[in-house]
Design a protein that fits this description.
The complex is a heterodimer of chains A (384) and B (312).
Chain A (H helix, E strand, L loop, with lengths): L3 E5 L31 E2 L2 E2 L4 H14 L4 E4 L8 H9 L6 E6 L6 H15 L3 E5 L5 H6 L6 H19 L4 E4 L4 E5 L3 H4 L5 E5 L3 H10 L2 E5 L3 H17 L5 E11 L2 H13 L3 H8 L6 H7 L13 E3 L2 E2 L2 H4 L6 E5 H13 L4 E5 L3 H12 L4 H11 L1
Parallel strand pairs in A: 1-4, 1-15, 4-5, 5-6, 6-9, 9-10, 10-11, 11-14, 11-15
Antiparallel strand pairs in A: 2-3, 7-8, 12-13, 13-14
Chain B lengths: L3 E6 L3 H4 L9 H14 L4 E4 L8 H8 L7 E7 L5 H15 L4 E5 L6 H16 L3 E4 L4 E5 L12 E5 L3 H10 L2 E5 L3 H17 L5 E11 L2 H14 L14 E2 L6 E5 H13 L2 E7 L3 H12 L15
Parallel strand pairs in B: 1-2, 1-12, 2-3, 3-4, 4-7, 7-8, 8-9, 9-11, 9-12
Antiparallel strand pairs in B: 5-6, 10-11
Helix pairs in contact in B: 2-10, 4-5, 6-7, 9-10
The chains are: A alpha/beta (384), B alpha/beta (312).
Chain lengths: 384, 312
């Protein structure tokens, strides 16, 4: 089985460099020297939008060897259900991994949207099912369900989605959904159900994942923690008679030499304001994954190297850009070696990201992916 | 009064059947219809909710970058999802399209006008306000509201339809455009009058729209011959309940306008003069009929005279 490498589409603006925490690509920051907002030419609207920037990243990722990209969803970002179809006809192979919270869509309608998108893309849709970080943002979305209820709802949502996809009238009476005789029309039902990447670190999440996930997706954690987590997930799903594969989502800073890579991190760290560190410390919610990451406490560090938690493993990424804390920093060879270690401890797929997303898609695709031995070994095996 | 001419996109079998080559799919043909509609001078494209067809919002988003100018009006039912999520998808759509989204909102399977009404309350709330809080029968939001680049966008124009009193009441309160289905003008006048009165009571004004199936040909004889053939193919009652209003045909299905290009333009102008300013036209096959209407009928519509190219 080969290893799938996904990239990430930055839905919340993009940075020009990892050295500076400024979303200067896109319209999330004021137009200023060094910022570019697609859509303005000499100060006048020219018909382009931030979608054109995302299109460039998707194309860069597919050209440079990634199978697709994650399209994340947050309150302040554009929505993946619009981004993916809008880019369907100008990408060839790029697989759209749509992040969404099942609670926000009706499962029958979601099945229809998904099958239509499968037909528009030749089957390039992937789900990243997220069940919500809780806290104020959950209510911002209009969702008042509690943590464990949300996972129960996710399970039921996927029961219904898969049920109506079979094409025969489907009946379901559950706690969250009631469906009477719904079915996709035959043309849509003939499409494959998208692969399901499932996020969530709590026990409630694992129960749901064991039933429906094709891939269990985790942020990067210290390697031994991740090994234990993946082992637990695989054991649990195995007990339920299903096989789940594991995927890691992480940022990388890969440079010709390790020194250059750390130099970028150091400069980035020195540009973080005390206010930014404080706001990191105050982030709330009931996400167990976020709590596992927060335990690393990057806001208490005074120097970038206090956050090196293992060779090539840096725990301060969330200070430099939104998202998880841990990432890999090193030379091309070192980064490839760490990815190989992750494959050895149970990773079957990766969602990688680097800043800026366009240039780094080419760099990682050209310089790092060819060095990952686990990938080429798998390719050789498949060829035999 | 600005006249808006919209073409309706088929999203099921009739479009599917035109794809004869491996490696191509229904969306390749749908994109061609959309381009045809744009090139022949229409203002918009309506994407209906055919249970046997593609999901309309996805179709609209797939076509977003295939057309440059057309307004895209997918049908969305109130069952799609949470009000915040439906609004958020619309916000991205507006950003990417330069504000070209229209919402043709339909009732969900529950048939509840109250849900659609509340969906619009919440959608406009999070769209226009910061710190928006709502606790209703169907939706709940706390401290919501779109910020940053997702704020300050034009809210999609709302198209509603139906002829029941509850439909008209909802439209009077919420719709930018209320869509009727083709009927003789006199029958429509009464319904439109009631709608206008309900809107006046709320101090609102809205536009009237009409959905019309067309068979337009060079001569009336050709159009009638094609109409007869089409009605026979449909099976069922073969006797035609012909012409109780000029060029308006009706059998079992929805009424349609049948006639020469001149007759078609004359009928459409009569409806326009009666106050129907948004016309959603449809015909089959969609690409060819869009060209016929676009080339021969649209230039004859009031206020749509051909602007001749300046001699170089």
């Amino acid at each position: 089985m080969s290893i799938d490498f996904f990239w990430r589409i930055p839905t919340h603006g993009d940075h020009a460099t990892i050295r500076k925490h400024s979303l200067n690509r896109g319209d999330w920051s004021p137009l200023d020297l060094g910022n570019q907002a697609p859509g303005l030419y000499r100060g006048e609207p020219d018909g382009f939008t931030y979608l054109d920037h995302m299109a460039e990243i998707a194309k860069a990722a597919e050209i440079s060897g990634f199978v697709g990209g994650l399209i994340p969803s947050f309150p302040m970002t554009d929505d993946p259900w619009v981004i993916a179809p809008a880019l369907a006809r100008e990408t060839k192979a790029f697989r759209f991994m749509i992040a969404f919270q099942p609670g926000f869509l009706n499962p029958v309608q979601a099945a229809r949207m998904s099958a239509s998108l499968q037909r528009a893309t030749g089957g390039r849709l992937v789900y990243n099912i997220i069940t919500g970080g809780g806290g104020p943002s959950q209510l911002w979305w209009g969702d008042s369900a509690g943590h464990d209820d949300r996972y129960g709802r996710t399970t039921e949502f996927l029961d219904v989605l898969k049920g109506v996809w079979k094409g025969a009238p489907f009946r379901h009476k559950g706690r969250f959904y009631e469906v009477e005789g719904a079915a996709l029309p035959p043309t849509l039902a003939a499409e494959d159900i998208p692969e399901i990447y499932f996020s969530g670190s709590s026990d409630a999440a694992l129960v749901s994942a064991a039933k429906h996930a094709d891939y269990y997706l985790s942020w990067l954690e210290p390697f031994e923690d991740l090994r234990a987590k993946f082992a637990r997930v695989k054991e649990r799903t195995h007990a339920l008679g299903r096989k789940v594969r594991c995927s890691v989502r992480l940022d990388v800073v890969a440079r010709r030499t390790e020194e250059e890579a750390w130099n970028d991190i150091r400069k980035g760290f020195e540009n973080v304001s005390p206010a930014a560190r404080k706001s990191f410390a105050e982030r709330g919610g009931d996400s167990v994954g976020a709590q596992r990451q927060a335990a690393l406490k990057p806001h208490e560090a005074n120097h970038y190297d206090e956050l090196i938690v293992a060779p090539n493993l840096w725990g301060g990424f969330s200070l430099l850009r939104g998202g998880p804390t841990l990432g890999i920093v090193g030379s091309y060879e070192q980064v490839a070696e760490r990815l190989d270690q992750l494959i050895a401890l149970g990773a079957d797929s990766f969602i990688l990201a680097g800043t800026p997303h366009l240039e780094e898609a080419y760099r990682v695709g050209e310089e790092v992916l060819p060095l990952v031995r686990g990938k080429s070994a798998a390719v050789l095996q498949a060829a035999e | 009064m600005t006249i808006e001419l919209i073409w309706q996109l088929p999203t099921a079998a009739s479009a599917e059947q035109r794809v004869r080559r491996a490696g191509f799919g229904i969306y390749d043909h749908l994109a061609q219809i959309a381009r045809a509609v744009e090139l022949t001078g229409f203002d918009g494209l309506a994407i209906s909710n055919d249970p046997a067809g593609e999901e309309p919002l996805i179709v609209a988003a797939v076509l977003l970058r295939s057309v440059r100018r057309l307004k895209l009006v997918p049908t969305i039912t109130s069952a799609l999802g949470s009000a915040v999520y439906v609004a958020k998808m619309a916000a991205s759509f507006q950003r990417f399209s330069g504000g070209r989204l229209g919402w043709n909102l339909a009732l969900g399977d529950d048939g509840l006008h109250a849900r659609l009404d509340e969906l619009l309350t919440v959608a406009t709330g999070v769209w226009h306000e910061q710190g928006f809080t709502h606790k209703g029968r169907f939706f709940e939001v706390e401290n919501g509201g779109f910020g940053g680049p997702l704020s300050g966008l034009a809210f999609p124009e709302v198209y509603l339809s139906g002829t029941a009193e509850a439909d008209l009441v909802l439209s009077a309160a919420r719709a930018d455009v209320h869509l009727f289905d083709l009927e003789p003008i006199d029958a429509l006048r009464a319904k439109a009058g009631r709608l206008r009165e309900l809107a006046r009571q709320r101090d609102r004004r809205l536009r009237l729209g009409l959905r019309i199936r067309t068979i337009a040909r060079e001569t009336a004889e050709e159009a009638e011959s094609d109409a007869r053939q089409l009605l026979q193919q449909g099976g069922g009652d073969r006797t035609l309940d012909r012409a109780f209003s000029p060029n308006l045909w009706q059998s079992d299905g929805p009424a349609m306008l049948v006639g020469s290009y001149e007759q078609m333009a004359e009928r459409l102008n009569a409806y326009i003069d009666a106050g129907f300013s948004s016309l959603i036209l449809s015909g089959a096959p969609a690409l060819e009929e869009a060209y016929r209407i676009g080339e021969h009928v649209l230039p004859r519509i009031h206020g749509r005279a051909v602007v001749s190219r300046a001699a170089a």
